């Protein structure tokens, strides 16, 4: 369509995708066949609005190869998404009316949705960016009412009812500030759920908020997404911990952490940009605090910056050049590590740290299963790790250092003591402690650079 072919990519083996559901303990996600699902998301808010189908295929292939499992994108996009045409010259609505969708635009949405399924990627799909119901600082305009939000939700739910790989994400960097805003969101959720009952729903708030802060009493809210901040050392784990204390329990995920190569705190001088170490720290802090996954973001990719037009937050190069920034590859390292762990049987276990774990210094975080036969510790600043000595007394343990940057695994040799000194104090580390009897189940195979 529009001169572009739509064919299967021979580089991938295509398997039918299954819908996601909440696990029995309400903390994590799994497929309907019971396979654990780790949400390793990438942020491509402007993908549908700015990229052609061939560019979308290139992007999806890169993300699939790196180990991402889900892509977050928007139908009615942030950057003048109602009035600036997409790559094929189409705008989404006639006369800014949600009841009058433009079939030409939505044929492209159809192709993107279908392509993601073919390539084995789930979609975290936002019906609209938040400025279309709560303008604030955005382009807007505000076009939604409770009535047309309901019909738009029904339109989307019906159109994409046959696709198993969609998680619907309402909001879009906004919180409801009035009763009208809340009614709009509630009605849009009801419209989607009426037509597509199998899909999970969530909400993407603005920085410093969890979805459950505003919709915790809504029965449609399945996944508790939050947005932290684009700030170095923000201590994102605080939000994961806060979300896990909520009732009813829900999977908690940082849906917008700090982006790679974005200026710290979005400063207008564009200096002190977040780098791969900031990306790793946020991801492991969250996951070792009990999150059900984590979303990566890159400054150039969220906006699909073409290298010349309207750079936001000091974008420095095109999104295609940004695809291989180190933080993205290191999310793949994270995925490979967690795929080899019984991580959905592991819970935060901060009491296993024996030394004082000061909050004013980068916090060490711990996951462990109930009998402590699997223990994973993250040291974000190259500090030695001191564990409870009782952990080494009950059963024989083996230990490994895992480099979260490269994926390299190093044996801890000799007699194990309660203090583990990192191989290199200049960087972050993961320490994995296993019962020797569990060693046969550790099948990790790092992919190292040649």
Automatic annotation (TrEMBL):
Gene3D superfamilies: Glycosidases. InterPro entries: Apiosidase-like_cat_dom, Collagen-bd_put, GH. It holds the Pfam family Apiosidase. Residues 24-344 form the Apiosidase-like catalytic domain. Residues 348-433 form the Putative collagen-binding domain. This is Putative collagen-binding domain of a collagenase. It comes from Cyclobacterium xiamenense.
């Amino acid at each position: 369509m529009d001169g572009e072919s739509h064919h299967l990519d021979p580089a991938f083996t295509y398997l039918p995708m299954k819908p996601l559901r909440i696990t029995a303990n309400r903390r994590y996600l799994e497929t309907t066949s019971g396979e654990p699902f780790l949400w390793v998301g990438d942020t491509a808010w402007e993908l549908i609005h700015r990229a052609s189908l061939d560019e979308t295929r290139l992007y999806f292939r890169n993300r699939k190869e790196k180990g991402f499992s889900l892509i977050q994108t928007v139908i009615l996009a942030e950057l003048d998404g109602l009035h600036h045409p997409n790559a094929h010259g189409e705008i989404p609505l006639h006369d800014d009316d949600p009841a009058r969708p433009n079939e030409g635009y939505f044929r492209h949405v159809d192709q993107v949705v279908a392509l993601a399924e073919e390539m084995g990627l789930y979609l975290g799909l936002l019906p609209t960016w938040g400025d279309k119901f709560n303008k604030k600082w955005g382009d807007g305009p505000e076009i939604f009412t409770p009535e047309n939000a309901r019909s738009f939700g029904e339109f989307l739910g019906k159109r994409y009812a046959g696709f198993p790989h969609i998680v619907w994400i309402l909001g879009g960097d906004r919180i409801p500030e009035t009763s009208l805003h809340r009614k709009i969101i509630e009605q849009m959720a009801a419209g989607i759920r009426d037509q597509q009952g199998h899909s999970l729903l969530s909400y993407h708030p603005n920085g410093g908020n969890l979805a459950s802060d505003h919709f915790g009493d809504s029965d449609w809210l399945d996944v508790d997404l939050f947005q932290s901040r684009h700030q170095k050392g923000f201590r994102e784990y605080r939000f994961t911990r806060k979300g896990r204390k909520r009732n009813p329990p829900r999977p908690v995920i940082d849906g917008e952490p700090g982006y790679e190569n974005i200026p710290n705190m979005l400063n207008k001088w564009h200096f002190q940009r977040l780098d791969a170490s900031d990306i790793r720290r946020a991801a492991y802090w969250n996951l070792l605090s009990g999150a059900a996954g984590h979303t990566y973001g890159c400054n150039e990719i969220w906006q699909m910056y073409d290298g010349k037009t309207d750079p936001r937050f000091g974008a420095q190069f095109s999104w295609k050049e940004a695809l291989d920034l180190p933080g993205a590859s290191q999310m793949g390292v994270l995925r490979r590590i967690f795929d080899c762990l019984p991580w959905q049987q592991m819970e935060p276990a901060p009491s296993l740290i024996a030394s004082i774990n000061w909050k004013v210094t980068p916090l060490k975080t711990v996951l462990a299963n109930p009998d402590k036969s699997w223990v994973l510790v993250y040291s974000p600043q190259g500090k030695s790790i001191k564990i409870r000595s009782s952990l080494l007394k009950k059963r024989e343990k083996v230990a490994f250092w895992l480099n979260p940057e490269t994926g390299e695994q190093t044996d801890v040799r000799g007699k194990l003591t309660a203090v583990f000194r990192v191989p290199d104090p200049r960087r972050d580390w993961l320490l994995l402690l296993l019962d020797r009897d569990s060693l046969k189940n550790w099948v990790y195979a790092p992919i190292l650079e040649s």
